[in-house]
Amino acid sequence: MGELSLADAAPGILLGVVTSLVAIPASTPDGSIDTLSQWALIRRRFARHRLAVASLYLLAVLYALALGAEFFAPQPRQWRDLTMAYCPPQLPQYSWSHGLHVPAMRVGVDPMTFQRSYIEAEGSAVQLGFFVKGEPYVFWGLFSCDRHFFGIKNANETRLDGRRVTFYFLGADKYGHDIFSRLIHGARISLSVGLVSIAVTCFLGTVIGGISGYFGGATDTFIQRVIEVINAFPQIPLWLAFGAVLPAEWSPLSTYFAITLVLSLLGWTGLARVVRGKILALREEDYAMAARLLGASHTRILFRHLLPGFTSHIIVVLTMGVPAMILGETSLSFLQLGLRPPIVSWGVMLQDCLSLQTVATYPWLLMPVVMIVLTVLCFNFLGDGLRDAADPYSTR
Known about the structure:
Helix content: 40-55%
Structural class: alpha+beta
Number of helices: 15
CATH architecture of the largest domain: Orthogonal Bundle
Shape: elongated
Number of strands: 8
Distance between the termini: 43 Å
CATH topology of the largest domain: MetI-like fold
Strand order of the largest sheet: 3-4-5-6
Number of domains: 2
């Protein structure tokens, strides 16, 4: 027998490398060796991206606050106190005598300029606590309650100069609305617009992109030309045009769904092109040809065999698309062409920032910008982590 050459051993070495990549052994509780599935590999790769994991947890907190906005917000959505307009933020303090508290605020008015000023009332403290009684509300239209996660202890009994004291964690706007409470209530609208829009975008993008890539030919050419025409329009002017045609007499709920539909109709093209490219690469694979020869319908081949093959890539694209939907709603509402009061969203809250002088005097009115930037960064980091995890065999 002759010596084994490198050329003869190469196929075996290559097979071993491929096997080690495709089947990663893992120990099971009973001590046996098992093989991790594709989704298990994706979860393991995603867990290594600490920034993406932290973003996922932070987004979970934001959506939990949005779902329980009535409970977590110290004040109801439309609550206001005109005597405390533009009250500055009151940061909680702690002392042994008063516990968790904020100093009570007295309002002063300049007799010449009529400008309000707020000073701390000496020796007067407003005690804060958790699970306190406050303004009554109806939780999701199901039941009435007056318990709030955080607020003033004995709010109805605490008074200063004969007036009931209030607490503004992040300050107040020109109507005396609690900005912190409205941020929480606004999160329900702003965050849900992104999810609902992306759900419609997912449906349109996967169906239209899948049909374009699977059938090809004249169908593919027509769909791609339509996509190019839609992408040729600048998005912001197009958003403004759609927002301007919305009737002013529509109810807030109708306006909400109209804005959602507008954002979806303009956001599906990117996903459609991703799906088309993947379908073009997979439609000639052996399993797709076998399904076609066995008599499977085009719908079954497309949605049962081809699309599940790159579900992780679709999830990544959708995750990266949510911030664009949120920014779109914010832009339309800020320009007063989208959602309007009494709806509370981050974009509607930013309508108070149209005047630079107002923003310079009361900078806490920009708190919705902080929430928008934080949410967009979280979605971007999450999408980045999912993009890396979608290909668990890469060496990145």
